[in-house]
Amino acid sequence: MADAPADLQEHLARLVERGLVTHVSRPINKDTELHPLVRWQFQGGLREEDRRAFLFTNVTGAKGETYDIPVLVGGLAASPEIYAAGLGVPVEEIGAVWVRGVAKPIEPILVNEAACQEVVHTGEALKERGLSILPVPISTPGFDAAPYLTATLCVTKDPENNIQNMGTYRAALKANDRLGVRMASRLSGAGGYLHWEKYRKLGKPMPCAIVIGCAPAVLFTGPQKLALDVDEMAVAGGLMGKPVRTVRCKTIDLVVPADSEIVIEGIIDTTQLEPEGPFGESHGHVALEDFNMSMQVTAITHKKKPVFISIVSQVTPSESSVLKKVAYEPMYLEHLRHVLSVRGVKRVVMHEPLTNLRKVIFVQFEKGTARTEVWRGMQGAATLQAQCGKLVIAVSEDIDPNNADAIFWSLAYRSNFMEDILMTPYRASGHGPKSGRAAEEGTLLIDATMKHDMPPLALPAEKFMREAQTIWEELQLPRIVPQSPWHGYELGDWSDAWTGFAKAATDGDWRRNGEATYERRHGNLKPETPVRNVEGRKK
Fold first, then answer.
1. Alpha-carbon distances, residue 464 vs 211, 345, 409, 486, 487 (angstroms)
2. What average pLDDT does the segment 55-59 reach?
3. DSSP structural state of residue 492
4. Does 187 score more than 70 pLDDT?
């Protein structure tokens, strides 16, 4: 059973206990230094398990501002271990928790008093200081036009059925009491944008509450593409195994998590849009200036001692890509196995570096899986979500889908491009830079599974590689991280006799092998005639 933290600060305390937080107490400029510093753990070659959350306790601004609110970056998903801690489960149980949370949501409960409303700013206080009290970092210094709220839960409500939606959307600081909000319009649906359209038709402004920091399980629902008209607060309860405590906002008719760190309440104009951007986007390019929503802030509420949270997005790998990857992959696997009943599928892996998960998907299959099942699996992965699966590649179970070199090896030797490729038209171009982009593109499916037995991979067998690694470490040579494949293994086209030859060779008895082959000489052959053509396949 999950033991999910009830709020962000409980989660942070658990991370500290596990040694997963780097504390930075020296002055750090939020506008020029903060995000670039954390970005190095993604761009500097650190292993995933070595990434940490960063807690900045001495935050300054470009104009010499100082802040008494600490900033947490990487605290949601710098690594799968940190993400799992937010759900209160081991990494290997993340998928099961998501399947349960979606299948068995738990309705939230409403309380009258909440920690997120210990301090309330309204009226003239907003114009005088308002958003400027928050240490909002610049995510992509040198390109972004403003500090941006990134780790958001933007809460809106459908004016027709009163079902709330929580989405993760960026919000640019425009004034002490105004934000520029980007709620994307996509084929797969963005709840906030659809709500805005309904309010616009009614001729009314749209209430919106932006939550900054709450229980990770609640925040995790924002980036996920759940079905429309599903109350994410109830799904979050399902993830936590208990209802989320909620409270009514002070100035608008919405409810938010009661144990949030900071809540920004406001009204979004449905009659006028305001230029917003540029901003470094999660697809890895800078989103240029566009007309987007303008939000007038009506209140800022927060705990007496809140923690401000921000996420590293932009070029992947990033914190935002880990947020999606650890939930998307098990949900795709669940869909293929139990909704489509595809046989033989073992893993679904979404390619993360640079491509940002959505475009490239690998589906791994057991050896001997029927070709029809391989193609059903690829088609299911390509069509589950409109924005995911432009390129889907099927591989066999010996291929590590996280190793691009292994993928290329599989493409080079296991796929026949005359019969193992299918391109279909009419896919929406989806999440990506707008410059010069067509509205439609195609889907490419490639079967790179092993379709017949092959000779072993030509690396020393596992036993000898492990023994050599021990010697390497005894010699105190530079630290190595094994890259799959790091030892040879059989792929079906092999015989017991050849295993005996290999053992004799490593035992120093190679002359005995020569004696055996001398006795098997044949005439009227050409060099490199396969033995199986003369003697039959060896077993």
1. 55, 31, 23, 11, 9
2. 96
3. B
4. no
Claim to verify: residue 82 and residue 192 sit in the same structural domain: yes
pTM, rounded to two decimals: 0.85
Full residue range of the structural domain in which residue 70 is found: 8-310
CATH code: domain of residue 70: 2.30.110.10
Sheet bearing 21-24, strands edge to edge: 21-24, 53-56, 71-73, 308-310
Asked if residue 228 belongs to a domain, the reply is: yes
Averaged confidence pLDDT in the chain: 91
Per-residue tokens: 161 = 């059925």
Residue 118 sits in the same domain as residue 15: yes
Report angle CA 219, 223, 225 to the nearest 5 degrees: 125
> What would the pLDDT profile of 434-446 be if each residue is shown by its tens digit?
666 777 889 999 9
DSSP 424-488: EEEEE--SS--TT--SEEEEEEEE-S--S-BPPPSS-BHHHHHHHHHHHHHTTPSP----SS-SB
Angle at 335 between CA 331 and CA 336, to 5 degrees: 120
Number of Cβ within 10 Å of residue 12's Cβ equals 23
Between 100 and 393, name the one with better pLDDT: 393
* Three-class secondary structure of residue 348 per DSSP: strand
User: 489 and 435 share a domain?
Assistant: no
Contact 322, 79 (CB under 8 A): yes
Distance CA 263, CA 295 (A): 14
Tokens coding 129 = 């200081």
